[in-house]
Amino acid sequence: MLSFCGIDRCSVDANGRIKLSPRILEDFAARGGEVVLHCLPEGAIAVYPEDVYLAMRQNESNPAEKAAESIVFRRTLRRFGGWSQSEKISAQGRITLPQMFKEHAGLKNGGDAIVAGVEIGVELWSVERWEEEQRRIGEHMRRKSEQEMEQDLQ
């Protein structure tokens, strides 16, 4: 069975929580149940199993030495460290979204959110930003296919 695939629409409740679908809850449970929230530069919140997040972050050898030498690396650490947080899924299948994370993603208490599977976890999007992201992806794929066709014809 495919993990972390599909799209759901849910509400952000009055307490800033979202309720995940049973299918997504099963996917997280199969990975140990611990999750990390991470704000993405695209304006969404990623929800990764903790082991996936740690694998993403453990690709650097000697990060302290690299941080001492590279402003770019320190900025990467700030982006990941400042915009990531461990979270627990409640017994009711809910995740509480920190206020700054909701603001970053354009999510509001009482509003709707898109929960999009990304194969390694899920992303939480405001409906408006999700629609814009889909438009951008479609436009990119159209341009890419036109370039591919043009190259084939030459």
Short description:
The chain is built from 6 helices and 8 strands, in the order ββαββαααββαββα. It is of the alpha+beta class and 154 residues long. Helices cover 45% and strands 25% of the residues.
Descriptive report:
The chain is an alpha+beta fold. The chain has a single domain (7-125), classed as Chemotaxis protein chec (3-Layer(aba) Sandwich). Helix content is 45%, strand content 25%. The protein is built from six helices and eight strands; from the N terminus they run E-E-H-E-E-H-H-H-E-E-H-E-E-H. It has helices at 22-30, 50-57, 63-69, 71-82, 99-105, 127-153; strands spanning 7-11, 17-19, 35-40, 44-49, 84-87, 94-96, 112-117, 122-126. The strands form two sheets. Strands 1-7-8-4-3-5 form a six-stranded antiparallel β-sheet. A hairpin with a 4-residue loop joins strand 7 and strand 8. Helix 3 packs across helix 4 (71-82).
